[in-house]
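Lab notebook, entry 377. We have the chain sequence and a SMILES string for calcium ion, and the next step in the workflow is to get a structural model of the bound complex before anyone spends time on docking refinements. Request logged below.

Task: model protein plus calcium ion, output structure tokens.
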Amino acid sequence: MTWLLLCGCSFTQLLLSKYLLSAAVCDFERENCGWIETVNADEFDWVRSSSNALPPAFQKQAPPRDHTYNKSEGHFMFILKTKNRISQIARLRSPKFRQSGSNCTLSFWYYNYGESVGAAKLQLHVQGLKQPTVLWRTYYNEGNQWLKAVIQLGRLPYPFQFSLEKISLGFYEGISAIDDITFENCALPPPALSCEGPNRFWCRDTKACIDSLLVCDLVDDCGDGSDEDSCVCCLCISDPELQCNFENGLCNWEQDVEDDFDWIRIRGPTPTVNTGPLKDHTTGTARGHYLYLESSEPRQFLDKAVLLSPLFNPAGNGTCAFRFHYHMFGKQVYMLSVFQRTVSNAKGWLLWYKFGNQENRWIRQTLFIRSSKPFQV
Ligand SMILES: [Ca+2]
Ligand SMILES: [Ca+2]
Ligand SMILES: [Ca+2]
Ligand SMILES: [Ca+2]
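Result returned:
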């Protein structure tokens, strides 16, 4: 059985099943939790072991201590190379997961040490999608130590699994290992018996009770799509004209012509290594589109790019919620800001800004806008 349910189960239910628990946190002490090598018999494979359990001749290929207990008896998965060949692949495949909730995060501790240790990558394979999505990469020797990787998975409505891959071109030498793989907040929100209050929304099928700010924000927080699919007819919060996930262009948003450069719509990773997202927020895969700004060369400090919204008419009570997801990652990221204006040629006034590196993740932001006149952001 490699099908794991991360859906619709409360955390208590997760705890009841040993297998589900071992999938939520895997320390490799007793078992490999369904993570297995899939390119066998090439003498370059992921193997579960501890430093203690290895013959002295192989000990230099493994970390001296595991991450969980910081002991030589502690276990991990590492790459064992027993012969030199021109082309060898170590591919660690995870069990298959059914789906994940919108706040799902994956983290793990890894080792990538040695002058000829080379690169490694973690990929996401979603059922029905040909193209895998790269979630994480290490490019070179990162020292004789355990390091942590944190990956935002978000809502994935289809079955998926991961692979952690390393290719040896004959000269591999070093330590590659992984320990303490952890999934957090990956279950769907638990069902509720009732859901009352002005700022609550009761999901149609999963019966979860969620914050009404999560309704019509293009993220399936319920897990059944009901917080998103009735946005036109019933909830009166939003119509499609007021939403944009950039999957089909800029919608009714426009590039300003008086700025220094433009927002670029792409999918997958940005061109500069170690900056920007590897995937969009809507789909959580390399298939989805998003807008980005290249802040590396040839851009100069203080160059700006402006994206203009359509003109909005204020709601009856004069309040409007503007919600978006942003990603700011890299050394050269400067500032992202949102302005509101009521006259089309003015700069308007500052509503919100964020400064500098915010790590490799999408962040949800809500701004409340008050206006008695039609306005633009
Ligand atoms: Ca361990
Ligand atoms: Ca192999
Ligand atoms: Ca939502
Ligand atoms: Ca998108």
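Notes for the group: The chain has three domains: 3-184, 190-241, 244-377. Worth checking against the assay data. The radius of gyration is 24 Å.
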